[in-house]
Fold these 2 entries.
Entry 1:
Amino acid sequence: MNEEIVLPELSRRRRYLVLAICCLSLFIVGLDVTIINVAVPAIGRDFHAPVSGLQWTIDAYLVVIASLLMLSGSTADRVGRRRVFQIGLAVFTVGSLACSLAPSLGALIGFRALQAVGGSMLNPVAMAIITNTFTEPGERAKAIGVWGSVFGLSMALGPIIGGALVDSVGWRGVFWVNIPIGVAAIILTALFVPESRAGTYRRPDPFGQILVMITLSTVTYGIIEGPDYGWASARILACFAVGAVALATFLWHEPRRDEPLLDLRFFRSRPFSGAALTAVTGLCAFGGFLFLITLYLQDVRGYRPLTAGLFLLPMALVMACSAPLAGRVIARRGTRIPLIISGAGIAAGGLLLTFLTATTPVWYVLLCGVVFGVGQGWLNAPITNNAVAGMPRSQAGVAAGIASTGRQVGSLLGVAVMGSVLAANLHGPLAAGFTSATRPGWWIITGAGVVVLALALYTTGRAGRDSAARTASLITRGDEHIPAPQAAGARAA
């Protein structure tokens, strides 16, 4: 019999303590996003890196973390969520220390990949712990809202802390801040977070894992290096061809496994499919925006890192305030309204950014960030809610892992695409040609907002709930044929 090992019934105070500890992982990961973006221009100057080198500083992390998130989620469901969570915190902390000591751009990119191995074990596993801690749907939606607001808070503090550190001690300091938070989270997890795991035993899928990594790495390489080598060059065409073959093989391989890395049955749920596509689209806009706006503020407008960070503060504060509002609306009305607000905000922000020039008034730049921040602030809570809502609790880690993978894939595509748009259209110095070179990128962000809006209308509502219920029933029946953990002692852990 498949018996799920779940968190014991906890008091309200203990549940929110678990939530706070899990949010620490989101805080350092979210902080890392904006801190590294603020530091990118300084890294480029220190290592004399081209635009593609700056893209890899961000995307090396994103490729690895996107490749491993699903594996981390399913592994945590199998061997223990707290155990995997603690390992992830340790690896992320060690990786951050190594990044701060990197002697070259190549070494920094490599250490960012190590950091990502740990990062892949954090957010999806923490979300699985939260999902199994908050079992009442309304309370769970509010907890997810708090989760989203922590991301907004980390976004708000990231530019300020990052700017201050780059100005005072240099870009290496932006990695130091992860170390004490990571150590504290490891200790608190050991003391207060009980162990949990799913009752089904899903064996690893190494071939599927390799195919995912090949797909993401080759496509990302092709997008980033395309402007330098030429889009029609043999190297770039080969990258895209290999990526397409790997993806096709993955889609052929997964349904033929009893225990796949990615259970394609999940995508029969309209809300789940919408959550995955929304995560890719919305975070593509976000990753691209951060990459371009930090270059604009520092290299075009000439602001110091701290000043550039302060420009992002209003956007981050709006995100922090919007996320809990989204959680409350979801608890009462569902996810459609937050997703409509999100899509409209992203599209409007992108449209405003198409008018950006080197002499745009400060108030207009801030307005662009605020409007875009509204869209992003209402985005994450409904993505997570739609990903796990209606799914069996035994699959919470996998479902959350797929949603998080969508976010990371979107972010890496955003950096890769926007950087390539900039490199392909830039003729001469960055400060002189930035405005015209990036206008197509802002239009892409506008289009991403429209897609989020369309997905909101199509995937939510009664038809969506019915498809989620049918999918959950299908997955539950299929899981009855998967063997439970063989050792009784593993159940008692």
Entry 2:
Amino acid sequence: MKTKEAAEQLRNTCRFKHLSLQTEKAYLHWYWRYAHFAATRIDADRETKVRGFLTHLARDRQVSPSTQAQALNAIAFFYKHVVSEPLGDIGDFARPRKKQYLPTVLSKEEMAALLFQLPGVYKIIGSLLYGSGLRLAECLSLRVKDVDLHRGTLTVRSGKGGKDRQTPLPSTLTADLGRQLAEVKRRHTIELAAGRGDVYMPNALARKYPKAEYSLDWQFLFPSSKPGACPRTGVYRLHHLHQTAVSKALRKAKLAAGINKKVSAHTLRHSFATHLLESGTDIRTVQELLGHKDVSTTMIYTHVMQKHHVRSPLEALSA
């Protein structure tokens, strides 16, 4: 099988198995990098090539353990589902040293200042990232039908790991979200009048519900400013806002608020979890709200909580 043909088959397999667009892009990225590496080692067997590639990532590229693991997952997926020859035991290979990174967390005052500086729809998005603990991709993928203003809940569909979950909707956002829903309806009416109005439907729902892609319920809560090519199908339609647009808005707001910390969309999710734990919320509840598979992932936030004040010995010198 030629390299380009294998890449196309890998793409089709990812879509057949309903992997997220981000996972699809990551697997294709690692496939190409591995293919170029393996092409220079034509005399080695498959296991030696894979072992050599993973060692190269650790020693020469100095990637993190999670990055190396993602590369291995992509290669294993390729051999199992595309080549139909599952990867067996590849033996020992160099692994990066695992480091314990603490998440960046904003104080409540910093969070208030950041949200104050966010304009328009970006303030609503930022408020949901912090107020409901959403990942950025989950927030931008929200549809009109996922917002329940009466019950005060948001439904996250096919989050990380393909899981659905519900998370509380802050009551302070009810009015803003009501106006956003009205704006989505106005935009949708314009799109229908222009002969468009359809939206990307996940998996095979477009065939199961052929008219649903034109319904208001399935429209994205945060549509892009203008129609464009769908990243999966290439069809010209209205999609949701791009992640880079939100990242740029957060960078500008951070500078305007005078915050001297690295701020990303995930920082707001980190702050959500930490502030909940500081307020006394049970860690299992926080785990459920975040959609973590294992509570050990949630435990990282206990290391950045503001706990009871420990008096420094330096303070005792001036007592």
